[in-house]
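Illustration: Pyridoxamine 5'-phosphate oxidase family protein.
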Amino acid sequence: MPSSTVSPTAVEQAGAGQYERTERTTPTRSRDRASYDRAHIHAILDAGYVCHLGFVRDGAPVVLPTLYGRIGERLYVHGSTGSRPLRAAGEAEEPGMPVCVTVTHVDGLVLARSAFHHSLNYRSVVVHGTARRVTDPAELSAALDALVDQVVPGRAADSRPASAKELAATAVLRIDLEEVSAKVRTGGPNDDPEDLALPYWSGVVPVAPAYGAPVPADDLAPGIAVPDYLTGR
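Result:
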């Protein structure tokens, strides 16, 4: 990685300490569920690969789902050169574009005796910051590898690197992890004491991602086995 990507100081700090709490990262409800722990936030980000990128375009809010990857204290978001976020970033008067990036994992359906107290067990991260397009070739290559490995760890080294034509059609936005917070809910339902005797089932239905057996492409060359990094998922 070139010096224009992640500084040694940021790498050394990754996984330790706290992100600074700001007005935007302080929730208005259930503040006890908020966390600014760096390692905890990184773990939530590293457990997923789909985020929602929010920005303002022509005075209206826009939220788009897309892939992301993390390298140290920077989040990389995938896009095409013709996508709205990239066009908006390029048209901004100042370098970069204000964005909000969210990542959410649903871990359980919380079923209470009352409809009001139904909830979800979840882990979420919200990132506020400025998205800037990655133009440095070395950083772009590293970011694209991170995006691929975020989805399937080990896959970047087991596939053909992007060609010059493909790189020209691919765009990546970088958001520094500075104004960040996590919010997590765990545990069972919070039923009211007067509802405990009601004849309704109450509890948690766990939710987790499920991966099926890899299905080879119809035109896969004979003798190519399923790689180890897929069989262990």
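Reading the tokens back as a structure: Helices lie at 8-13, 38-46, 84-91, 137-151, 164-168, 228-231.
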